[in-house]
Amino acid sequence: MRRETIVPRKDWQTHVEAIGFGFHTIDGKTYWREDACYVFDEAQVDVLEAATAELHALCLEAVDRIVRDGRYTELGLDDRAARLIERSWFDRDPALYGRMDLSYDGRSAPKLLEYNADTPTSLFEASVVQWYWLEEVASDADQFNSIHEKLIDRWRTVGGGPRVHFAACYDNPEDATTTDYLVDTCRQAGHDVQALDIEDIGWSGKAFIDLADRPIDRLFKLYPWEWLMSEAFAQHIPASGTRWLEPPWKMLLSNKAILPLLWEFFPGHPNLLAASRRREDIVGAAVAKPYWGREGEGIAVLDTHERGAQTPLTVYQALAPLPVFQGRHALVGSWVIGDEPAGIGIREDDDRITRNTSCFVPHLFR
Predict the structure, then answer these.
(1) Most buried in the list 57, 88, 99, 209, measured by CB within 10 Å?
(2) What pLDDT sits at residue 356?
(3) Closest by alpha carbon to 54, among 340, 323, 342, 318?
(4) Which residue from 317, 258, 237, 215 is spatially nearest to 63, judged by alpha carbons?
């Protein structure tokens, strides 16, 4: 695994805009970078794929144990959430996708930092943008990337019903692009689709409805469950009959409080890091993480003897520093479609915490 400096395509902005990637530059700063790429060998790709499959299996086992033992309060979840989670888990409501954030240097075992299992973004970049880049720049190479094909196949399993609705905050360019891409893959799978803003979902007294008063039977929502549960219409969810993507049981995996439970269930696993809800349980440097948060929000790195703010609803995880290549800290986002590893995307930053300002860099392997 290495980072190579390369020459960007001439007028690369036009190339990526032509495939629908409009937020390649954010607030005047380049988000999509192609003046570099990450290069893997085939064995390293195999390691990432195997680790992702293993971690996903551990996560599903953890969900089952949490549900059967009723350990919801340890994740800050109330009875309303618990009932939704239990029903969706025992009904085996299917999931669409998720993204594991891994620390991996190409030599040591990949370590799970967190599982973005509910509303992961950077999907379009990983699935489409870097694939088109590969075809134009290094067509003789390969890429760990079967995301697009697996999404279409997965929609044939989870689509259900006459129509699939999609809801997101469409004033956010990243969320809008991610959702529109998923709409396209769902349509390619043969489903009727309808997109709307999350605020345009209505309640008829019997069912959630769209702007044309049509019932919403199957809804993909790029809107975190913890936000959804705080909305006024959340009281109608149990009686609505709507089937959700991601399903309510994903509330367990998208919550960073799953990390101490994973460590409890599978202590010493080579792809896991020690984690606890108590700082004193973690020997050495640690990372403090709020139960909920996106794009590095609220995360703090604590030195060996530093206790941190000790705020409620915080977990502490042993520090696994991101590897540094040419001065850049690299994070591997490994995608799961259904239950299968499907590809990776690389985010990097000058800082050791990955945030919404971090850059996306394409990859290849030979």
Answers:
(1) 99
(2) 78
(3) 340
(4) 258
Cβ atoms of 226 and 250 within 8 Å: the answer is: no
Cβ-contact 250, 51 below 8 angstroms: no
**Burial 89-123, CB ≥16 within 10 A → b, else e:** beeebbbbbbbbbbbbbbeeebbbbbbbbbbbbbb
CB-based contact 191:153 (threshold 8 Å): no
Give the long-range contacts of residues 302-307, CB within 8 A, separation 24 or more: 307/279
What does the pLDDT read at residue 239?
93
d(CA 97, CA 223): 14
For residues 184 and 142, what is the distance between their CA atoms, to the nearest angstrom?
Answer: 24
CA distances from 179 to 18, 47, 167, 189, 231 (A): 18, 30, 8, 15, 21
List the end-to-end C-alpha distance of the chain, in Å, as a whole number. Answer: 11
Report whether 144 contacts 343 (CB < 8 A): yes
What is the per-residue pLDDT for 108? 97
DSSP-derived secondary structure for 151-163: HHHHHHHH--SSE
Which residue positions in the chain have pLDDT lower than 50?
none
d(CA 83, CA 61): 19
pLDDT at 352: 84
Per-residue buried b or exposed e for 176-190, using 16+ beta carbons within 10 Å of the residue's own CB: bbbbebbbbbbeebe
Helix (H) or strand (E) holding 225: helix 225-228
Judge if pTM exceeds 0.85.
yes
Model pLDDT, residue 160:
76
What is the per-residue burial (b if ≥16 Cβ within 10 Å, else e) of 218-255? Answer: bbbbbbbbbebbeeeeeebbeebebbbbbbbbbbbbbb
Torsion of Cα atoms, 92 then 112 then 283 then 315, to 10°: -50
Give the tokens for residue 291. Answer: 């139960």
**Amino acid 50: pLDDT:** 98
Task: Give one word for 137, left, alpha or beta, with left for phi > 0 and alpha for psi -120 to 50.
Answer: alpha
42-61 CB burial, b ≥16 within 10 A, e <16: eebbebbbebbebbbebbee
Helix (H, G, I), strand (E, B) or coil at 97: strand
Tokens read off for 213:
């008063």
